[in-house]
Records
---
Amino acid sequence: MKASEVLDNLKRRFPNEPEYHQAVSEVLGTIEEVYNEHPEFEKSNLIERLCIPDRIFSFRVTWMDDKGQIQTNMGYRIQHNNAIGPYKGGIRFHASVNLSILKFLAFEQTFKNSLTTLPMGGGKGGSDFSPRGKSNAEIMRFCQAFVMELWRHIGPDTDVPAGDIGVGGREVAYMYGMYKKLARENTGTFTGKGLEFGGSLIRPEATGYGNVYFLLQMLKTRGIDIKGKVVTVSGSGNVAQYTVEKLITLGAKVVTMSDSDGYIYDPDGIDREKLDYIMELKNLYRGRIREYAEQYGVKYVPGARPWGEKCDIAMPSATQNEINGDDARALLANGCFAVSEGANMPSTPEAIEEFLKAKILYAPGKAANAGGVSVSGLEMTQNAQKLSWSAEEVDEKLKSIMANIHEQCVKYGTQPDGYVNYVKGANVAGFMKVARAMMAQGIL
Ligand code: NDP
């Protein structure tokens, strides 16, 4: 089957999964050229095998809320592709979670993990459980109930979950605790664990730091210094917080952060002290970003995203499809010359087209946010060796992995006019490695 036919076929067989179709379409649109150079891929129907997950588990999760009422949610684990290593990818808890979203994330994860150079396949999981407004006890009971079903499908050499939206250190710890009780082993079958029980230094920081390291590589290609540049960031969770931390350290000025209710605009820039306030607000009190505006007397815009604010660089770090065509045009009109994605697939196809047409520096999430899963891979290595590395050691490895991903994007994405199309570069580099591994291992 031709690459172009695969998408129509998937749409027919798996209707009502728009995010999944979107992610597949973006990749297929960029790999056609290399695909056509390898007739053996078509003969073995490689693209279709790469697009459809190896298997999907779905299950009911039953738990008791604080009022004593019995609640149910759906739980899922997608094991997408393990050609280059055990399935690896985060768990998302959010009311919007469904098969389409998890299939897009697992598909993307497969290419991202391939780019990291570490031996990890792609997977993703989650639940439509919303942690918002839940007590700590309810979170614990839900995590335990979720793992009671999930545990039999995962293991240190088969499938290693981690965090994602709504799943941070607290949730990973509750899930890992229950997993150990059921599996009766202590081999680290989750990453993003606490430091006291097998976690890696720099894992919480890794996605945000890694995105900034990737941005620095892109800026270097045009001789631009990050110092003094105005940056808009969306989100105020794990990825956003450490993106902002690294940007502040490097002398950039971050003027926005957001949550699902709205965004704050701080014209003086978010400094270290203000970031500490946000970290406490979000990680401890589980408050809303609006409270930052009240605390520091700055603008709060409810129900909106920050892309209309003037900036040099934008770093979307909240969720999928948070930059549409109009947002992209607004960013470009305001002089934005770089977009580096902390979130997964935050830009719609129309927005991506605008960025590429304008030839700005544009890094897709599967390259720019690969730092998180990279340090997860390093956490797995430390667990297997039963030792732990220093923060400096992990940070150095992270920097070198991000530089390597950048290099691969330049290698496969440089156009005849010299413009680096990072979308194409990341997709082709990620694809070729998985494709070769699948070809070598036969028809499975
Ligand atoms: P968190 O749950 O820590 O934070 C998510 C942030 O985004 C919160 O501020 C949240 O606001 C906001 N948000 C979530 N959903 C929406 C929505 N539908 N509309 C507007 N805002 C929303 O998640 P992470 O920081 O871990 O993840 C952020 C992004 O980064 C995701 O796309 C994730 O897939 C990606 N990513 C994460 C990695 C990691 O290591 N954690 C690795 C690679 C990618 P609110 O609190 O109101 O919900």
Note: DSSP finds 17 helices and twelve strands in the chain.
---
Amino acid sequence: MNDLRMPGDQMEEACGVFGIYDPTRKLHVADSAYYALYALQHRGQESAGIAVADGQNVRHYRGKGLAAEVFDEDILATLTGHIAIGHVRYSTFGGSDPINAQPLVARYKGGTLALAHNGNLTNTGSLRARLEDVGAIFQTNVDTEVILNLLARMCRGAGMEEAVPRMMRAVRGSYALVLMSEGRLVGIRDPYGIRPLCLGRLGQGYALASESCAFDAIGAEFVRDVYPGEVLIIDEDGLHSLRVPTPLESRLCVFEFVYFARTDSVIDGVGVYAARKAAGQRLAMGDQVRADMVIGVPDSALPAAIGYAEQSGIPYGEGLAKNRYVGRTFIQPEQGMRENSVRTKLNALTRNVHGKRIVMVDDSIVRGTTSRKIVDMLRLAGAREVHMRISSPTVMYPCHLGIDTPSTDELIGSGRNVEEICTYIGADSLRFLSQCDLLRTVEGSGCGFCTGCFNGKYPMDIADTDEGLDLDL
Ligand code: AMP
């Protein structure tokens, strides 16, 4: 979901979505959604929301902050029904306005729709202009509302089965959606499958989630990933699948494996932990560095550090302690705050690193803020040498498809070579994993990958134009 900002200053977002349908009407589905959002919390800490439907009515509650801050038992008790959808939102500057919290809920001629979105549309401006031309009113500044408006219009006189594929023909970009009406739950994955979405089974009912770790949290069984271009409709008749035409090769975001997803999730057939560990192993291959200890930057780089240590034979140890009560560093909107938050979040284990030559493995360098601070931290703690190893290629381009990577001029890897980046972060040496090696770590998936942040090649035209827009409002 993308805030509608000026071109060039967009800070993209990745979020977490969840949905559940309980035909037995025995479960308190809002509780299940709450626990699932808890498990997906790493995908967004800005706001959380749940909407429930009972066949007649749709109720919802949303708020700023973590799921545990937004909901309590009393609030959850008011959310009764047999279908629920939920959302956790990840955003940066300008995005903290609670009006942008999801699920978005709208009443239209045919009833009520609630929608939760993970991803980012690239033709939002064109779509919004066309909708405004025919009198649509927008109350938020997120692209999800464009989808909601399109659906409300397309559902007039047509069923979901017709409306959803029509909406999918009009929008461009990435989207994993959970949609709910009074009596139906719908899961939708964009034709390239850029953002993850999977299907689970809970008793006689079904669940949908951005990541499989949400199913584990509520005792649901993972069934399969939603296919790129697939629409899953779940109602009292069970589960129906529709497929819209998809490109020849899907393009799952590889950064889900690098950083974003939780290590215990399995996405499109690949375990996130295994992929990260393999990335660390590959990073160590052919690396001649001499060092006393390999450490990882907690938490997302720890599997890669373990892999690096195993492959290189250099002992693995802990060199940084993490304060677990601080959110992900990038959610701080301004650079000053971001630098402070690195210190709040990480501290060197002086007695472990003092006098040692350290290989420090991190999963990525984006702005360079964290890396520079922690290299400095290790030196202040007495590390003799600090060799930085990154288990992904250099991030050189912004993401337009749902991950928060900043504009090109904020990316330390854009327009600088490895030596220059190394000098900036103050390390003794620096090495990145090649794109080819990164793709080998996710080979088992059988799908294609979007590597746009590394090479600027996005699966689709990212320019927001009207060209080829298939839209009859
Ligand atoms: P920096 O050195 O400031 O570029 O920060 C690198 C750190 O940010 C790494 O530890 C990554 O785990 C983390 N990171 C990478 N991508 C993102 C993102 N989209 N949002 C938040 N943190 C990220």
Note: The longest strand covers residues 111-121.
---
Amino acid sequence: MLNLGNKVIYQIYPKSFYDSNNDGIGDLRGIINKIDYISKLNVDMIWFNPFFVSPQNDNGYDIADYYNIDPKFGTMADFEDLVVALKKINVGVMLDMVLNHCSTEHEWFQKALAGNQKYQKYFYLRPAKKDGSLPTNWQSKFGGPAWEKFGKTDLYYLHLYDKTQADLDWHNPDVRKEAASVVNFWRSKGVQGFRFDVINVTGKNEQLVDSEDPIQEKSLYTDTPVVHEYLKELNQSSFGKDPESITVGEMSSTSISNCIEYSHPEQNELSMVFTFHHLKVDYQNGEKWSKTPFDFKKLKHLFIEWQTQMDHGGGWNALFWNNHDQPWALNRFGDPVHYRVKSAEMLATAIHLMRGTPYIYMGEEIGMTDPNYQSIHDYVDIESLNAYRKLLAKGLSSEDAFELIQTKSRDNSRVPMHWDNSLNAGFSQNKPWLRPTGQDVINVKDELEHGEIFNYYQKLISMRKTEKLISAGHFKSLFENDPQVFAYERYLKNNGQENQDQILVLTNFYGKKTTVDLPRAYQDKAVKTLISNYNLDATKLAKKIELRPYEALAVKFK
Ligand code: NOJ
């Protein structure tokens, strides 16, 4: 069976990585130009956000043609060259399969609009209620109702996201065949990795009915039992034919028991899952557009719960802090002003040494932070702009609404990669589609010359490849009630005895020092320091360990 535990995946947002033709938009050739940089990290696979033909209303998550490259990003020949170039450095390709919905510009939707019955069955088309109101009271995740008028007919179509992203009806076997054929097409191009966008909302209840409240609403279309059937079928008819394939499902508002089923090898669904509970610990009352310090206890509790239960159930987690939908973790859970380097390394340690497959989002390895935008006109993300309008309509002042956008916008992490300290951050000779800021302080060139975060990531990646305790060990939490330390043990059972081989990981999540009292079992034992962001080289652990601001330490018991 494929070993998922010793792999590390790097995520590239093509629009923002490197612009080779100077039109202000990153492209596939740009990625090829930066192969040397990528190879330094020694990752196993790259997940690329969508670069298929798309009107880009949701930056490529609104696909109009699944089989072609959007000319903004290059050509099929560029893609083929990219696969070859990556193969040379032993890096696989993971593509983003956005199959819950397609763009309303897609041929399927256009044919449906023109009256073609076959294609009308690809979508959720429903009449208004008797009183003339929308088919259900569901809300789109980007704000506003989830229904839009279907051309000149009396029908409405469902869109859980933007109105230009029409939900596909997976109950229809033809839709599922289309999904498999898209995956198989890219497999034939040498692709072995697939990330499935919001895949757990493909099984809407057969009868679409009004919801009682927003939480109950999600249960009407999320994690329904039929999703497991769809995934088993997709697995069998596409990527499951390749024993080396790696798949990850993006699971919105999911549960541990479902995730065990999605990712358990014997279920033949997916290799692993992305879940988001740990990234909502800075939401006030579950509301994303709010500003509040993160709840450390909750964060710890969630990590412990997911790590332990996924381990017991035989499921497998994708481990990550950042992606293209999240503001930088460094701004949320670290201190980008006083301890940028130490807190970046501490966060990396905490996530990389857990059980699962780590993902690194481009720029994380140099400690990038949220841009310093001062105007709403700097933002382009559809979700952020909708949210801004909604916040103003709710009565917030423009300053308060703007502050929330600054804190939570998805554009925070979509800013072009900082390659150097020049005006366009070395990303393009032309004005970038999203403005970089702060490249004078944080950029690849300086980081490689005299920084330490990149080296630290390199070390974490190589540790996962050489240390079985990291790639295959079980997880046990420590100091559960400590208000500022997240600590755990990774262990492997030896000759039926627990805890014989073990690693201890200690991370201080705050800018003030603290002390932990080590349990007797750890005291005075000989250890080898695996990694320390303060260059500590401990060979023995005392009774008490002092952790400096954002200190991270991992030791292996000899
Ligand atoms: C999740 C993607 O990561 C996000 O960027 C996108 O807007 C939604 N799915 C809809 O496709």
Note: The chain is about 30% helix and 20% strand.
